[in-house]
Every structure is written in structure tokens, then in C-alpha cells.
User: Fold ABC transporter ATP-binding protein from Streptomyces mexicanus.
Amino acid sequence: MATTFAEAAQSVEHAARLEHVSKSFAGPGGQQLVLDDISLDVAPGEFVTLLGASGCGKSTLLNLVAGLDRPSAGSITTDGRPALMFQEHALFPWLTAGKNIELALKLRGVPKGERRERAEELLSLVRLGGAYGKRVHELSGGMRQRVAMARALAQESNLLLMDEPFAALDAITRDVLHDELTRIWQETGVSVLFVTHNVREAVRLAQRVVLLSSRPGRVAREWTVDIPQPRRIEDAPVAELSLEITEVLRGEIRRHGRH
Assistant:
């Protein structure tokens, strides 16, 4: 799988490109502008975190990139169909861990005789070897998110969209999964667009942090994260950059009157 993603990444200019994207929804007072003139590129193999205050349109933007909704203006192009991972694992409880992954493989057209082996490979990739036959209720929250990650990777998309996938986990489990996601991203070469409201998580993971202003969401600022991996939440360079980003985020929130 690492070769598949890496070779595909070399053949395209952008994993995702958003050009002047805006999105409005109908509201009591008429059309409500949620996203305004967003232009953003995600390079092949790049890890980008999308950061902003609650309600700024981060999840809306991710849904647009995923193709679950259409922009009101502008255009979005992606390198194939993205894979999407949510805060909730969304696993089918009546299926085993392995069968949840096999379902994604089936939908992708993988022959039946190859699915179990492929599912077990993906479980091993997320360090859940031997969990193929376990039911969802037998898995911890962190294990469920690992299975959800394996299922997303089963789609063999070049772009993985992640909507606050670790927000509901305890700090230690979240930190372990940060390590695992970093490892998987490096091994596969997949591009990642990761939504979070946690500044330190954004800096811990990303090569680039993109900050959205409060509604309507606009690209307020970007930071390139030149801190070598592996990183820790508590590392001084991570804490220093997080403080800088937090101050800018606070300014955006104050400027838009949201407290």
C-alpha cells in the first residue's frame, strides 16, 4: 500500500485544490454565509491541519472536499475520491472489525477472495493484528478509531479527510493515536486534511496549519511547521508555536465578537 500511495502522489500536482470556495445555507433571515472565498491547496503527501473556533465552518469545508455537499461558489478538485474519517467511528456494531474493513473493500470492488487478507494487512498497519474477529463492543475507544482508520485506508484514496477523529478520546489514548497516525502517514504517503479545534494537536501533527476566521470562515493565516517528527505535545517548539497560533486565534474570536 505504501508504494501505491507514494507512486500516485508523484503523478499529480495537487491532492486537493479549492479555488474561491464559498458556502451559504438558508436561514431564518435569508442566506447565511458560512465560508467565504476559500482558496487552499493540499500537496501530494502533505499533512495539513485546519484550525478555527467552533462554528467557523471547518466541518462544512471538509464535507465539501469530500463531495458530500456542493459549494455555493468556486470549485474543488481532488486526486480521486477522498476517504473520510469522523469523530465518531461509525463502525457497524453487528460486524466484526475485519468485516467492517471488508465492507469498504467490497464497495471498492476488491474480489471476495482477497478481502480477508487485505483487511488483516490493514489491521496490522494500525497495530491491531489479531483483532479481525472482534466485535465493536469488545474494542476500546482508541481501538475503534484504529479500525475506522483502517477502513478509511481500505479505500486506497490519495487524500484522507479527518474530522476531529480523536476529540472524544482521553489524553493518553489521543497521544498514542497521534503517533500512530504520523507513522501511517509517513509509511503510506497519503495526503491528510485534518480538522481540529485543538491548537496543540494541530501543531503536533501537521506540516502546515491553516487558521479559519470565525463565521464566515476565511483563511486568516497559515503556518509552516518546521519541527522535526516525531513530535510530542509537550515539546518546547510545539508549545511555542501553539502559543503564537492561539494568540492569533483569540484575536480572530475577539474581532468577530465570539466569546
In short: The longest strand covers residues 30-42. Residues 236-255 form the longest helix (20 residues).
